[in-house]
Amino acid sequence: MKHLTLKIILLVTLMIPMETCTTSNLINIESSAMNIIPKPQSVKPLQGTFVIKSDQSLSLEGDFVHPEFIKASLNALLPGAFSSNAGGADVQLRIHPDQSIPSESYRLEINAKHILLTAGDEPGIFYGLQTLRQLLPATVENQTAELHNNAIPAVLVVDSPRFGWRGMHLDVSRHFFPLEFVKQYIDMLALHKMNVFHWHLTDDNGWRLEIKKYPKLTEICAWRVDREHEDWRKWSPIEPGEKATYGGFYTQDEVREVIAYAAERQITVIPEIEMPGHSSELFAAYPELSCQGKVIPVNPGSYWPNEDILCAGNDSVFTFLENVLDEVAELFPAQYIHIGGDEAAKKYWETCPKCQQRIQTEGLENEHELQSWFIQKIEKHILAKGKRLIGWDEILEGGLAQSATVMSWRGEKGGIAAAKAGHDVVMTPYTYVYFDYYQGNPETEPQAIGGDLPVTKVYSYEPIPEELEPEEHKFVLGAQANLWTEFVKTTDHAEYMVLPRMTALSEVVWSDPEGREWSEFRARLTELFPRYEILDWNYRPLDEE
Ligand code: ACM
Ligand code: ZN
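That is the input. Now the predicted structure with zinc ion docked in place:
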């Protein structure tokens, strides 16, 4: 109803400036302002139009961290924009260090004379620019638009995100994705005002991060035999004499490049280093770190249950992990380090003399408490580095580390329990946001891991579980979707799994849940597709309705 009213107002106001707009092409606000995704808090049409000139003057005021990038971003939208400190510039970007303006919020006013974008911080300015981007025709995406003499109908957008954690994960272990794609993924997040990139850098099928102290991690643990022609679940292990040729890794310089690229786009990069399970790739080069002590060549697919595990009774395991984490902490400026913690089978811990000894000396009840002890030991180290620990919801088992944040993936239960215990949580339940699941009929979709997760279901997600009391809501930092890549071998396929489900998620985590309605969103979403096409981002088309 709200939108219908807004539509009528927009149509009426469109008629007025038409008369004064004979020399300009009016960019149709009905198919622009109304189509901003994620939907802003408020969009109010104003009188008149802003006519784009071939050389806008621009002023930047306030404390910009990346002024050159911001100018370049604006320039990509309005070619000809140049720097000017004079008051009264055509386009004015202002950061007001005002405590009363919520972080990441912005106010974008387009009137007959100016484009005025104000915010309390640079993220707010960046998000305002993403909104301006969506107010302009899709052709701005490859800068082919000849926009001068076009008129943007005057409008006031006041906007602020609902959640501070708007995340997307990418598994680069099961399949390796090149640096250029990682940057493109970040671009995809940026257009949708997502702000966390969770980089799943290590898992059973390959270690992907250069660690100076342990060069074998990237010489050996990053490589597996190529079984790309086989079904992931029917892997055949390396044969004697065979070479491990599939894989790759990111150098620390490349990681710094990604972090800087993401930072300009207001995205925090959170590294994940899996422990104590999902770590069998380590045993290709460092077998002494496992309970079994056997060399296990990096797996070219999955075997289940995966019982290989880091030995919790061996002190040198902690020396190794702490050395790795020291380099990770140095490299990544993010507050958080993700330590995995999921699906750690306890079979070998049950029989390993060193693990059993640890249980005894630490006075632990069982292997679940041993996992908790393991995570708490790592937590201490992470805290000493000035960082915070986040892990999958299994870290609740056997007792949650005091300062840990929980990523709730096995449904919402873990998130609810953690929030009720006063821990921060990020909701990422597989039922709503596992983008490795099918998004349509498996017979006509590319092979996926299973499940059934159409974009409509993602759009229906509510990150605050009903079970939480109002005073517990603050512990839900937000939500994120995960792209596991067992069945995702190519960048094209990765894009297809993410778009448009991430588009739906962006609105879930940014916009007001009131009045969220699929058919209204669907119409806006359709208008975003030409942009994806110009950007050459592969997306799954919507089903007929
Ligand atoms: C997970 O999906 N194992 C976190
Ligand atoms: Zn052990």
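The first helix runs from residue 2 to 18.
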